[in-house]
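Project standup — Tuesday

K.O.: blocked on the structure for the chain from last sprint. Re-posting the sequence here as requested.
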Amino acid sequence: MVKLDNTALARPHTGLVDADLVYVEEVEWGLTRLAAIFSSKLPKVVGPVRSGRVSDLEILKQFAAPGFVFSGANNVLLKQIAASNAISLSPNEMGNYFYRNSKKEVPYNQMLKLAEMVGKAKKLGAVGDIGLRFDSAVPTGGALVKSFNVVWPSAKVSGAWAKKGWAISVDGYVQKDYVTKQPVIAKTVVIQFVEATVSKQGDRFGGKTPLLRTVGVGSAIILRNGQRFDASWSRPIPTGGTTFLVGTEPFSLDVGQVWIILVSNKKNSSVTVK
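H.V.: unblocked you, prediction finished:
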C-alpha cells in the first residue's frame, strides 16, 4: 500500500495506472487520500507519497505482512503501525528510495522508487486471498449507467464509462499519469458504504481524522461494464477478506484495476450514479 496525496498540487499522480486496488479515503477537512495497492505490477516510480491514516491499518489487516509506504504520521499512529501486521516502509526505514520532484512544491513532491525498494524490502508476506472475486465475462441484470459522482465537503471523485472501463476524474480533472500521460481507467468501481466516526487523531491545524470501518457489513454499489449493481458487503473479522454479494450470490469484479471508494453510510446523498 502506497499512500498518495489527492489534492490539486500533488496531481497528476505517477504510477497510479499500475495499481491493482485503489482505496479512496476521506481525511481531515473533507479532503481525500488514495491508498494504492500494488502487487501484479511494480512501477519504477510512484508518488507523491503522503502521510498515513488510522483507517489504513484496518484495510491492511486483510493482508499477510503487507508493505505500508507513507511519509509522516503522528506519534500515536506510528505506535499503532509498529504494533500492526504491516511492514513500515516510510522514509525512516527506506530513505534511500525516496526523492523530491523539483518541479512540484514541498510537501506535494515526495516520490518513491517502488520497484527498486520492494526488491530490497524484507519480511513482506506472500499474496493471499482477501475475498475479492474476478471474472472478465460480462454480467447481466445490471442497470445501464454512464457516470458516477462521489462528493465530500472538499473533494470529488467521478468517472465516465469509456467502453473499456471508467475514466477517473478527481475534482473535475481527468486523471492521467504524470510521466506517460496514460489515462487512469478503473475496470470496476465499488462505492462501499461504511461506518464513519471521528477518531481521536487529527492534524496540527485542528482537523479531526475520520475512522472508516471496513470490518462489518453494509451496502455497496458496484459499477462494471457500464452497468450498476446494487450489492452488499461482508467482512466479519479484521483478518478476513471482504465478500461482495448481489442478492445472495458472490459478485465478481472485472479483471483489472479496481477503485473502492469508502463513503459514510449516513451520507448517501453524496453519491450520484446515472
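K.O.: great, moving the ticket to review. The mean pLDDT is 95. The chain has four helices and 21 strands.
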